[in-house]
Every structure is written in C-alpha cells, then in structure tokens.
Fold this sequence. Notes:
mainly alpha; single chain; 71% helix
Amino acid sequence: MTITADEFRTSIDPDDELARLLVSSQKLSYDPQTEVDWDTPLDPTHHGLNPEWSTLYGTSLWDEMTEEQRITLTRHEVGSIMSTGIWFEMILQQMLLREQYTADVTGSEFQFALTEIADECRHSLMFARACQAMGVPHYTPHRAVVEIARGLKTVASNEVAYGSILVAEEILDVMQRDWMRGENVLPIVRTTSKIHVVEEARHMKFARHEIRQHLEGVSAMRRRQSAWVIATAAYVIVKSMVNPAVYEAAGLDRKRAVAAAKANEHHHNLMRLSCVHLMDFLSEAGLLTPAAMRRYRAAHML
C-alpha cells in the first residue's frame, strides 16, 4: 500500500520536530538547475555581494579602488565564500553519514539526515556552477586547514559534529539574507542565496535539535571539551572564508589588502552582529565557555 504525502503529513506525531522538518522539505525545496537563471549574461555593474560585506569596505584602500575593482573583488570574495562552503558541505555530509551509519532507517532522524545530505549535494553543485558563471577560480582553504579538517570529519561526532555544522550554517545565513535582497548584487547570487537560506533554515533547526539531545546529562568536562572544539572549528571556518588571493584578482597589493582586511572594524562588527543568535543558542546550551569565548572573539564572532 502506497502512502501519499498528504497521508504522511496527517499521520506524524505533532511533537516530532524532525518529522515536521521532513514535511517542510517536501513542501518547500528548490531545484537550482531550473530556479536560477544561468543563461543571462552577467551585468558588469553588479557586485558579487553587497559591498558592505566586502572585507575591505570601510577602509582607506576601498576608497582608493575603482568601481570596476570593487565589483571584481566582491565577485571573487563571494566565489571564495562559496568554494569554502562547498568544502565544508563535503565535511558535513561525511559527518552526517557516519552519525547515521547504523541508525533506525524508519526514524525521522535518519530520514531527515539523508534529506539534508541530498540538499547539501544540490547546494554544492549550485555554488560550483555559480562560481563557474562568475568566472572565479577554485579557492581552497590553506593546505594545513584542509589536512586538519580531515581529522575533524573522521572523528567528530554527537554535539561536536552538529555544533560545527551549526556554526558554519549560521554565519553564512545572515550574510546571504542580505545578499538575496541586494539590488546591486548579481541575480545568480541573489537567487542561490535565497535557495540556501530557505533550505538551511531546516538544517539549522535539525542541528540545534541534535545538539540539545546529545548534551542531555553529559558531564561538565565533556561539555567544556565540546565547546572548545566547536569554537575552534568556527574560528577555522571564518578565517578560511575569504582567500587572500582574491585581492590580487582585483589588482590589489596582496600584503596591503590582507593587512587592511585584518584591521577592518566595519567588517568585524558585521561578523559579530551576524553571530548574535548563534551565541545566544550556544550560551543556552552551555557551550559558551571562557575558553570557547576567547576563540570566538579571535574570529570577531563575539
């Protein structure tokens, strides 16, 4: 006997949060191949992201740049962020698969985890195609970060895995909510941002649910250790988002641009504002320990 989508929706336990997320994924998901206008030529006057989100916006170097340089820089910056997003989505998928390796296949947790993996595959392909359309190269994190991350994706589990997933998703979510509304932002960036924001909202709810579940009754020592690892993962992700090579792509002196970005209080303030809700949740979950807070401050997330 076949169960229809409507029958599934009416049969779920109203208290089953993950089942409700499954219903949401059935009702509101996108196919980037048809939702995004991939064929229209890029408007040369449109930025890759809202200029205010550029790592150099608000600096004297930004004031010296031509509008063409600013547009080129923001396109390479968003391409770098998308490439870093793909890199982390690859890690995320492996962690989720390990978490569900022997899970009950009839349960909502297993089914939503695999739904999220399917979403992430589509997101990675979507971002890859957007980078290709913008003509930006494949930016990757520093080699040492890539190798360290191999360890994280191999051993991270429980609240550490889901906490690392959550911090990455939350940071990008706030940025993309601005980009999707930016009138001077490329349409492919606006549309891909909208798709990602809508579908990642479910992923973030899932991550928060799993973090709460895994932290129930754990020792204070384990909570402190998990908090530090999650904060370290967040630090690495934030520091890897914009590859220094983007400055050279815009015709800038790399050393001077890196120094300007590092000292850019405007961008630091945007990062802190984008992490307010994340920090509230981490505090509520007991994962905002003194050691973790030092990490977040070093990444300008707190």
